[in-house]
Amino acid sequence: MDSAREIGALPVRAPARPTGTGAPERSHTSAMRSVDRSEFITQWAPSLVLVVLVLGFSLANPNFLSLSNLGRMSIAATPALMVALGVTFIIIMGSIDLSMEGTVATTAVLFAIVFNQFGGALLGWAWLAIPAALLAGAVIGLINGVVHVKLKIPSFMASLAIGFVGIGLSVLLTGGDIVRVNDDVFRALLLERVFGFPLMVYVAIVVVLLAWFIQRKTTIGRNFYAVGGGEDLAHASGLNVQRVRIVGFALAGVFYAIGAILAVARAGMAEALTGSNYMFVSITSVVVGGTSLMGGNGGVWKTVVGVLIVNVINNGMVVIGLPRYVQDGVLGVLVIIAVVLSTNRRSLSLVK
Hints:
By secondary structure, the chain is mainly α. The chain has helices at 2-9, 22-60, 67-92, 100-117, 129-150, 155-174, 184-191, 199-217, 219-229, 231-236, 241-267, 278-288, 300-319, 324-342, and strands at 179-180, 193-194, 197-198, 269-270. Helix 2 packs across helix 13, helix 5 runs antiparallel to helix 6 and helix 8 packs across helix 9 (219-229). 39% of the residues are buried. Mean pLDDT is 85; it is low at 1-14 and 347-352.
């Protein structure tokens, strides 16, 4: 009994709680919140920036939101948007394309020459210039992709070289002269307006919807994301990565050609300089819109927002009277900020 009392008198300790579990749980929760916050910033920051810019410029000058000024912005943005849509597919694949200026110049000149050779009237046989330009853009993009993939040359270097070839070809076709397109029906893309906006804006809306359909509803569109998300994994799953890249560059060439046709409609002429400045504007628009240069994410609607941001900045700074060099500086800073927000630098051991 005494021994029993002694045993019963022994203090009974409560089961020990595992130590160190609360901190990892809190750390994991904090990490998840940080990821969610980062994804939220990447997803919505461009749209918020666009809203802030519009409000800021409209407060600085009430004429900024006038219908006439919005029409001018849409005219400036439309050809660049077409080019940026093509660049979007390339960047989603994790590649880069610097051939757009040469491609736009060549296809614009070819379009104008064929248009005039077939009578110079869109309602006649001159409409054949449209498929001719689209085909030329696809061929240039195809060559671009083949050089990149088959010769194993980095995409930025292969496309830069093809772009120079395109500019040289446009000079050869024109002899350094300007090729004018004076057909009233074709120029109606610029001159005829519906609800205050030129017809080319509505053409651009249709093309944007087509690009979105390719991105979301087709196999090749999904394959672009697969390649950009991880080329080795895509290859291991049986995907023909080389073919996807070549098709991507050819598709981009078609969108560059659409941009070229609209650029000719806007200016009423084509020359070797028709594609000038599209490289910076298009890539800037894609990146500012939130598509990562690392590939695997982004999309058409983000590019639309990016193009609007770039054009709002350009137009807004003109409206409030800032000089051109300030505009270029602001766009350069904007690109850096966009890349910082859209890139997960923690996952990169080396930036090169």
